[in-house]
From TrEMBL:
It comes from Cohnella faecalis. The keyword Membrane applies. The chain crosses the membrane at residues 6-24, 53-73. This is Short-chain dehydrogenase. Keywords: Membrane, Transmembrane, Transmembrane helix. The lineage of its organism: Bacteria, Bacillati, Bacillota, Bacilli, Bacillales.
Amino acid sequence: MYTLLFILGAAAVVYLLVGSIVLFRKQQRENSTLDKGASMTTVKHPIAANPIFILYLTLPLLAVVLAIIWIAVTQ
């Protein structure tokens, strides 16, 4: 049961991450002057400096850690 939930969650995260990257690159090509007041860090590293991508990486890891703690405590 836990394996199936993990696989579904991982698939959802990968699907959303790939979809976001595709959409981001499409918008970047179409609207090159969309963010006029963006910082130089965001301009140099548009994916790494994006807080949504940071959430995509940290929230699943946090969920896995909390699930491991929960399973360890309940058993």
